[in-house]
Write a structure and sequence with these properties.
Length: 359
């Protein structure tokens, strides 16, 4: 029996997630979904595709932002660009019909917003044993955006239904399937930091992509570390990262590809996302830095910083996700940093000196 998968990149709040009122507003992140960004050298999307292929699923369609076209191509993976989540789910509906027309009996429908280490084969086995056309996976925190669907049912009895699936739309469906395995919902910045911490401490299967150059220090190809800099394990340096003289990268920090840390800057327990540059003489701790957007996880402070001497975004224009001017973060101080689908209160910029600078 043939099984395929359709992966929809989620940018907005999960339809099944229990989020607070502030994070329920629909917005598009300025640099795209966190699931498409490197975390310890490889994105959640790539890791999900590897898991699907390992489970023997060869036909996979990925529906996401236009910058997906920059991802490495694979003849067994089809990438379908769609501007936002409103357009992606109708595209998934059409693709589901196509898969059914190709003789595929079972389709995995995944709204990708969380990092999930689920046993795909076990989920399919459960679905078939129940004999119902729609199964939804769940963990200890609730229902996941992961369904196992009979394509024939979808193209007949469920024809015209909306995606993602909702409880109550069809009596008795979906059938819940409680799964074991590590899940991180990536609902806010501290979830990203927890995922990095759990990976370093071997609490999950996520492994850094690169070579362990010494115990607890991983470096990907092209990483350059100045001889006067200092690395305190565990840390990760992504491809083509640069660490300047007298800089200190210390415990549980990850510098992702094409990021740079200036001379004398200290980075502690911080995630520096791709194409991000930190200037000289800064002290950054317990934070997520994404381009020119800075979020202090402990203080829950979010800022956009327009001074390129402090931090800056070096991502090529074609790499950035397209967003409307109404949603640009730089125009709204109260919406200064959008991490996936979480919103934070941006406090007084005067606190920046207490967040970034030494002394």
């Amino acid at each position: 029996m043939r099984v395929s998968a359709i992966v929809v990149i989620n940018d907005g709040p999960s339809p099944t997630g229990a989020l607070d009122g502030a994070s329920q507003q629909k917005r598009e992140p300025s640099r795209g979904s966190i699931t498409c960004s490197d975390i310890l050298g490889q994105s959640v999307l790539d890791r999900t595709l590897v898991r699907l292929r390992t489970a023997g699923i060869r036909t996979v369609s990925v529906i996401g932002p236009p910058n997906l076209s920059s991802l490495p191509s694979n003849r067994e993976t089809e990438f379908i660009p769609a501007g936002n989540s409103f357009a992606r789910w109708p595209a998934a509906q059409r693709k589901m019909r196509e898969h059914g027309g190709q003789g595929i009996e079972t389709v995995l429908m995944i709204g990708l917003g969380a990092y999930m280490e689920l046993d795909v084969a076990e989920a399919v086995k459960f679905h078939r044993a129940k004999g119902k056309p729609l199964t939804q996976l769940e963990d200890s925190n609730g229902a996941l955006d992961f369904w196992v669907v009979d394509s024939k049912w979808f193209n007949t009895a469920a024809n015209g239904c909306t995606l993602p699936f909702r409880y109550g739309e069809f009596p008795g469906l979906p059938v819940p399937c409680r799964m074991k395995g590590y899940v991180n919902w990536l609902a806010e910045a501290r979830d990203l930091r927890r995922l990095v911490l759990d990976a370093f401490l071997c609490r999950c299967e996520l492994k850094p992509k690169g070579r362990e150059v010494r115990p607890g220090v991983w470096a990907a190809e092209g990483a350059r570390i100045h001889k006067l800099s200092r690395l305190v394990a565990p840390v990760y340096l992504g491809s083509n990262t640069r660490v300047g003289p007298s800089a200190v990268i210390t415990r549980f920090s990850n510098l992702e590809r094409n990021s740079q840390v200036g001379a004398g800057t200290v980075v502690e327990s911080t995630s520096v996302l791709p194409h991000t540059v930190l200037g000289r003489g800064l002290d950054v701790s317990h934070a997520v830095v994404d381009g020119n957007k800075f979020l202090d996880v402990k203080r829950n402070v979010a800022l956009v910083i327009d001074d390129p001497k402090l931090i800056r975004d070096t991502a090529p224009r074609s790499w950035r996700a397209s967003i409307s001017r109404a949603n640009e973060l730089s125009n709204h101080a109260s919406e200064a940093f959008e991490f996936e689908y979480s919103q934070y209160l941006s406090r007084a910029a005067g606190r920046l000196s207490g967040v970034l600078f030494k002394g």
